[in-house]
Each structure stands twice: as C-alpha cells, then as structure tokens.
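Worked Example 4.2. Consider the chain below.
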Amino acid sequence: MLAEPVLLMGLIEACRATIAANSEHLCALDRAIGDGDHGTNMRRGCEAVSAENASVSSLPLPDALEKIGLTLVMSIGGAAGPLYGTLLMEMGRELRAAEEEKDFSSALKQAINAVARRGRSHPGDKTLLDVLYPVQDALAHRLPWTDIARHAERSAELTAAMRAMRGRASYLGDRSIGHVDPGASSCALLTTAICRYLEEYRPV
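Applying the procedure from the previous section yields the following structure tokens:
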C-alpha cells in the first residue's frame, strides 16, 4: 500500500501549519488544567515530522505512519507523544497486516482502541478519545470531509462539560469542568486541517 507522496507531504504541512498557528491557544487551554505546554510540545512534534517530510512521504503508507508516530513519541513531551504516536504506529501496523486493502476507518478504530488501552481511558474521560471516536464513526459512515471536521470541532467543545478522569487535570476534580481539554482541542485542529486539505485534494 503506497502513500501518494504529494498528498502526504501536503497533509504533513497542513498539520504543521495549523498547530503552529494555534500553539499559544493550546498552551492557554493547558494552563487552565495542566502544565501549560501542550501547544509548545505539539508544535515541536509537528516540526520534527515536517523536517522529515520528504523521506517520510516516499515510504509506503504503513511505513510512513509508523515513522511519523515514532517521531512524535520521540519529540512531543508529556502524555501527548505516546498517545499520538500510538495512534499512528498502530494505524500503520493495522494497514500492513491486512491481506488486502483494509478500510481506513477500520484501521483507525483499532488504532484508537490501542490509544485507549495505552492511556487507560474511555470516552467521557475528557481526553483526545472524545474527538477520535466521533471522528472514526463519521468516517465509517462516509460523511463529507466538512462534516467530519465539524464533528471533531463540536466533540472538542463538548469536553468542557466533562470532569477530567485522566492526567494532571484529573487532580482538579470538578474544577476541571468548564475547560476544553487541550488534547481534544489539538486533535480537533489536526482533524480539521486534514479534512480541509482532503476536501481540496480529493473531494468526496
């Protein structure tokens, strides 16, 4: 299964640009319920992937996803690195293991489940899972890219009403209510950037 180099290069750049533009916003969200460095960490990770864009984009898609995931694990601090890294590495493994071309949404679901196991989290715990699962469901139902992006954005907003059950924010108890989860927000931003790029490159 080969990645389209131009498509993958564009997606990597779209993700880098959106995180760079929203880095301070993500830090502000994180200052309210965490360490305040989520935006900085995500920006560092995306820049590390971008630095390897040409070599990554020349790989078969499963290999490219695994390499991106490993780069994120090595470059993003805190919990986000292992979670985002697990997501992409597991997606790569799922796609490689398929005897024939596997439905991307099925591979994504298995990868999200791996993230849930890694973080010992569930939907409703106020994490990036609260965006990932709705996005996967929208993708499985073959919704248009714009609708998938709206699902991601709305799902991130809904985490404000949740009580954090994992990570540093969980120590705040009910005081975590009223704040959007930074990881959910970065996940929504990345999903929206990907969807907008795909809408132009490969309209549904």
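The chain has a mean pLDDT of 93. The chain has one domain: 5-201. Compare this with Example 4.1 before moving on.
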